[in-house]
Write the structure tokens for this entry.
Amino acid sequence: MARQFDGSPIGSSTLDSWRPTTISFVQRLTTSESFKSLFREGMALVEESASYLDGEGRDQARQLRRAVAIAYASESMRLTTRLMQLASWLLLQRAVNEGEMTPTQAASEKHRVRLARQEVACAPELFDELPKRLRDLTLKSMRLQARIVHLDQSLSATRSHEIEPAPSPIASQVERLRMAFAAH
């Protein structure tokens, strides 16, 4: 009987279970300290934005002329929506990383998350009149969104390119031998 390097006999179960493995750097990134940092950054931006919009931002919005106040309302709603979507994606990914969800479960939930990049809704001259803090939060959220969209696209591409490796030619020969002897 043939032997493997570790001394154990080669059997069909050994051959059937052997699969070459590749390292996915994108998937590794999502479980790394870099992802944890991205997660903390995203959640901190959510908190910072909520605090601003519920406090100082509300006071600043009251002092704006009508056209700018409408732009403020529009941009603050877009900011809030963008951050909710980003937080949802981050939470789904963290749940997968921590084993609370399988990648398949997360993929079925992901259809609810809209990561499409959004530009500033108002005209550039109105955007420039918005309070600086709102502009800064909007731009920060758009940069975070671009990073997450890139990461999500990379993850999707990695998953779509993962193909089942071809069966081992030796395993198929062993299976044919087993079937031939089983028939007798």
Residues 27-158 form a domain with the Helicase, Ruva Protein; domain 3 fold (CATH 1.10.8.930).
